[in-house]
Write a structure and sequence with these properties.
This protein is an alpha/beta fold. It is built from eleven helices and eight strands. Strands 1, 2, 3, 4, 5, 6, 7 and 8 form an eight-stranded mixed sheet that branches. The two termini are 35 Å apart.
């Protein structure tokens, strides 16, 4: 099933505006309420109660407040000391900072984001956390500014849905992973068809919903990008009551499409592996020195 991309506006610019606004609100006010834009859903069932009290205690409060994801990818993937982790669309840095602690001082955690305000917030959170093995990079997830075969694990938290070119994102994730590397992201997926009223809503696109891939389509795209051992684990299922607020705010007649929406949207943890056989260039199976570009 092809995802319909809104044509009346520039998706990327809209994403920058919305998430930049959220970052500024958190930085300036220090309250989550300031970022509760209906297009970002930071107070709805998708984004709440994702991190344990113990995890929140390890990182600055503003990293938690700026988290607009749909899962907790660091809780569902094994990270080993010394590994290199890349977070696509790292926002305020919550998953990067948690990953950095798990890979330890011999490892490294990169965060990639295209929004200046989010990067500034993330770097301040890194400073406050006192974590040295973290680097935040400016760039787009469709063009990752890291070399081939340089990362052990790629994570992401409800960001791939925001891209208008998801196939390129998946190919880029595959490219930067070392042979045997793991793809482990949280994302919103769709089970079956979705009403056009939802697909065409720009507000919901920016909020991760209208850009969601159908679950079998997501699997097929990962395989097409080269991934093996593709697996999808449902972490939350949303019903009409969960969806009512953000659909209504987007001007969608919820009652008219209730049967078509109920239970169709899922938060899922999506895994894949770059096969070791993908090592086809001299030296690609040895550690690669990382230099940003």
């Amino acid at each position: 099933m092809a995802t319909t991309v809104p044509t009346s506006v520039n998706v990327k610019d809209e994403v920058k505006q919305k998430y930049g606004s959220a970052a500024r609100a958190v930085s300036e006010s220090g309250t989550v309420q300031a970022c509760c834009d209906p297009g970002l859903r930071c107070c709805d069932p998708i984004t709440t109660n994702l991190y344990s009290a113990g995890e929140k205690g390890l990182i600055p409060e503003k990293a938690v407040l700026a988290s607009l994801g749909c899962g907790n990818p660091t809780a569902l993937i094994e990270l080993k000391p010394g590994e290199v982790v890349l977070d696509l669309g790292s926002g305020g840095g919550i998953d990067v900072l948690l990953s950095a602690r798990r890979v330890g001082p011999t490892g490294k955690a990169y965060g990639l984001d295209m929004t200046d305000d989010m990067l500034a917030l993330a770097r301040e959170n890194r400073r406050q956390a006192g974590v040295d093995n973290v680097e935040f990079l400016k760039g787009e997830i469709e063009n990752i500014p890291l070399p081939d075969n340089s990362v052990d694990v790629v994570i992401s938290n409800c960001v791939i849905n925001l891209s208008a070119d998801k196939d390129r994102v998946l190919r880029e994730a595959f490219r930067v992973l070392k042979p045997g590397g793991r793809f482990a992201v949280s994302d919103v997926v769709v089970r079956g068809e979705v009403p056009d009223a939802v697909r065409h809503s720009m507000m919901l696109w920016v909020g991760c919903i209208a850009g969601a891939l159908e679950e079998q389509d997501y699997r097929a795209r990962l395989v097409a990008a080269g991934f093996a051992d593709v697996d999808m684990e449902t972490t939350r299922t949303y019903n009409v009551a969960d969806a009512r607020q953000f659909l209504t705010e987007a001007g969608v007649d919820v009652d008219a499409i209730a049967e078509q929406v109920d239970g169709k949207f899922l938060s899922a943890f999506i895994r894949g592996t770059k096969p070791k056989a993908a090592c086809c260039e001299p030296g690609c199976c040895t550690p690669v020195a990382i230099t940003t570009r």
